[in-house]
């Protein structure tokens, strides 16, 4: 009898433990789990001290071979670990569009659901993000060629593990349809790469139903985790509003926009961590309303892969100085602290070693995720994020990406797609066929070379005074920025610049200076 009682009691204890684990959503996977405490956050978790996992070597380019040891993608690649995330591409016409939790219960209020998610313990933040976004993740098959023959790529060409990445709002459906139509005609109808659409709020059924009609590719619609689109804990809202008002008074574009800052911060340090993007090696960033003019009869992803390129662009111009007052000096601080050497950084400097404002426009990017998932890039972003200046100033993701490339890459790892016609806002890049590198036009027919219809009145920015393309084309990696170079320039700027913000009252400038100097 005693033995039976003991066995029964043990069984009850085991059942209770299992119920507690289930209720608390504590998951375990096949990774080695450290002895650190489970994170419990409100919005954002506290950042670890930047650079702790860094593997820099003095007087050596730190990214000749990326250190990916801190970033394990096996969790995402194994669909079993996605718990209840839908991994199949469905028929949009048979979908009820009802978000459900892991038990199949309908979610009535996204705010309450997120509040619950961020009050629980998880073995990792990745688990939390998956649980958070899964009810609003929808995967569909494109319908354009369901009743006709799909245009096929050349039989001897390979496709890469790549994605077409779009950040878009529900209200931008008309611009999105326009861009998808142009992009499909120009490139993707031949290659059928999948799309991933992201939004900080759930996509509406009408938005999703509208887009599936214009491509034969697979489409995934997903939600951005709250932690990737909310104010960090270290941000003073009072100080932020004061900064917004001042930048608006100074006519800085998006000077008082919080949502624009969330977008820039997301593209600076979070997009490559999104659960829906972990299976991919490359991405092509697309934005609603942009235009493509040329027939692209080869695979840019394959070109980057075969030529060991990690980042590419079509437009390079100078940034507005009023948006990035202290980005340069914080970049110098980072490089000096971690003793970086770079053969590319001089591309971004003037003769007196100040920032020349050159950057690669990130609204068109074709790049490797490995660049962003490296410990080097992650540490750079964490360093910048601790300043708060994505919100106090108006740092864009384009100069952040560009200066990171300057710190960690070589010119040989970058590529200018001179043969891709592109328009964003009023700025155009229109290929001049005669000036294309031989590697880009040797395999093109005369028909293809001439089929690039940019408008005759297009404002082409290739050779305007604020373009950085001439400098990039002629740039040679003769000057190496060593750790001592970064240190000397940092000392010079701290001594002479004192963070003078043009047009801002002196008291405000002094507060900015004190804050920036006190952070590190």
From TrEMBL:
This is O-glycoside alpha-1,2-mannosyltransferase omh1. It comes from Smittium culicis. Residues 36-61 are annotated as: Disordered. GO terms for molecular function: alpha-1,2-mannosyltransferase activity. Keywords: Glycosyltransferase, Membrane, Transferase, Transmembrane, Transmembrane helix. The chain crosses the membrane at residues 7-28. GO terms for cellular component: Golgi apparatus; membrane. The keyword Amino-acid biosynthesis does not apply.
